[in-house]
Amino acid sequence: MCSVIDPPLLSIVTINFNGYKDTCELIDSIKRHIHSVSYEIIVVDNASRQQEGELIKSNYPWVSVICSTVNLGFSGGNNLGIKQANGEYIFLLNNDTYVCDDHFDVLIKLLKENDRIGIVSPKIRFAAQPQLIQYAGFTSLSHITLRNKAIGYAEVDNGQFDSTYQTGYAHGAALLIKKTVIEKIGLMPEIFFLYYEELDWCTKALENNYEIWYSGSATIYHKESQSTGEASPLKTYYMTRNRLLYAWRHKEGLLKWISLLYLITVVSLRDSLKFLLSGKYHLIKATWEGIIDFIKLPHKLS
Known about the structure:
- The structure is a single chain.
- The protein has helices spanning about 20-35, 50-60, 75-85, 105-110, 180-185, 195-205, 235-250, 255-275, 280-295; strands spanning about 10-15, 40-45, 65-70, 90-95, 95-100, 115-125, 135, 165, 175-180, 210-220.
- Strand 1 (about 10-15), helix 1 and strand 2 form a beta-alpha-beta unit.
- It is an alpha/beta fold.
- It is globular and about 50 Å long.
- Strands 1, 2, 3, 4, 5, 6, 7, 8, 9 and 10 form a 10-stranded mixed beta sheet that branches.
- The model is unreliable at about 1-5 (pLDDT under 50).
- The longest helix is centred in the C-terminal third of the chain and has 25 residues, at about 255-275.
């Protein structure tokens, strides 16, 4: 049975967008494995085509389901769930993830025992190749190019990242945050819609003197890129637009303009040439639409 009391200690929030099977597998895995903490599950259906939110309500009556009439994106969907959350701690989990063990209490303990820590992410491994690591922390972003690396990416997990340490940023696929931190830094910025919103959120937490940690004591399995694809126009557009938007929001003075100029010229021209040589003309279009829409975007700091 689901470990639920009123109020629960933990609110698990996930977004469903035409991903009913994945969402059900996530819910089933949580119910099967998580018994160490009291929790609630909140599913936000982001205007799926086949009324999947209603199906989830019917099959999992103990799950709270919010049905949005429009697709609010990753940030807007998560914010709907956060607003309804009753837990002291909120765990944002992608619906294309699942769990195989019960170590959520270790993550909560880390946040509970240190007031400086505001956000923590667990180890993430690839579901398709579960022996391989996707995330064991992030390096910091470079100042101009805004690039960083996922620590342990594609390495076989031999326990080398089972420790706990401070990291540059949390991972949006599995992000545990204190509700009190959200009350201080605000909800996830909805201007991004998709990609970079969790990076912006983590940066805001850092700017408010919170620390971000990684814990290898818990593992999440992630079916990476099922919703948008590795090189889809959707992903290319938002990655291009939102990288520029992040620079605008978090860089200052001359460094901001150098970063923007580099991203618009060097990076976008390089990517366009790569897409041209591989015959992916639709990705060239998506790249430059992202740049144009960034320039036209009002209220970039909202």
